[in-house]
Amino acid sequence: MQHFPIGPFINAAAIALGGILGAFFGDKIPERIRTGLIPFFGLASMGLGIVSLPNVKYFAAVVLASVFGLIIGELLHLETRLNKLAGSVRGIVNKVFPSEGLSHEEFLDKYVALVVLFCISGTGVFGSMHEGMTGDPSILYIKTILDFFTAGIFAISLGMAVSTIVVPQLSVQLSLFFLATLIVPLTTPDMRADFYAAGGLIMLATGLRIMGIKSFPIANMIPTLFLIMPISYLWHTFIAN
């Protein structure tokens, strides 16, 4: 039975609304609150990453997939391509809604981190697949709450460009939602647990980047999410048993 994708649209609406409210009214929020919330969002991202790890089945497989995924991302220059796209988005949006206060490098660093957080986090990817199979959008509802406030705070400095992230966000989540009936039946609980853990590592890296502690090449880590379940299966079949 095919379900209507509720979660992806609710998530997109929260990002768009949060971005608009932050861009237009965010300057009315006291500076001390703004500066305090941004590190908290990084911390929340790390928290989501941490809670994704305890149920991992084969952590060695997760590490292996992460290494190969990062190598592939580096060879494909995913971070560079995403930076160029982010720069183009800023140029287009600034023609209508000028934004100031951040250097081009600072803008790209934060924008790329938000694209990963909103579009390809383990919570978003797994939540979309979960809803596609079961019709339960609860995982995406949790993500939506975080995304609304994150979009609002970051839009204060990034401007309306934050709201444009709903385009890739909807594309990714809807694609995974409709493909879930093909993907999930081919997986096992252990494979999904390892997938969630791999997404958790990316969420940890995203949090560290948002907090300004370490600027991991998050976009280059994306291929990990496509490699982890096959590698988890192979690890279970040929090494663990």
Record the SSE blueprint:
Blueprint lengths: L5 H20 L5 H21 L7 H18 L1 H19 L7 H16 L2 H13 L3 H21 L7 H18 L5 H22 L13 H17 L1
What does this structure look like?
The protein has one domain (6-240). Helix 1 (6-25) runs parallel beside helix 7, helix 2 (31-51) packs antiparallel against helix 9 (189-210) and helix 5 (104-119) packs antiparallel against helix 9 (189-210). The longest helix has 22 residues, at 189-210. It has 241 residues and is an all-alpha fold. Helices cover 77% and strands 0% of the residues.
List keywords for this structure.
single chain, 241 residues, mainly alpha, 10 helices, 0% strand
Cα end-to-end separation: 36 Å
- The parts where pLDDT drops under 50 for at least 5 residues are none
Rg, Cα atoms, Å: 18 Å
Shape: globular
The percent range for strand residues is under 5%
The profile of the biggest β sheet is: none
> How confident overall, as mean pLDDT?
84
Order of helices and strands: HHHHHHHHHH
Percent in helix: over 70%
Number of strands: 0
Tally of DSSP helical segments: 10
Provide the number of structural domains.
1
Structural class: mainly alpha
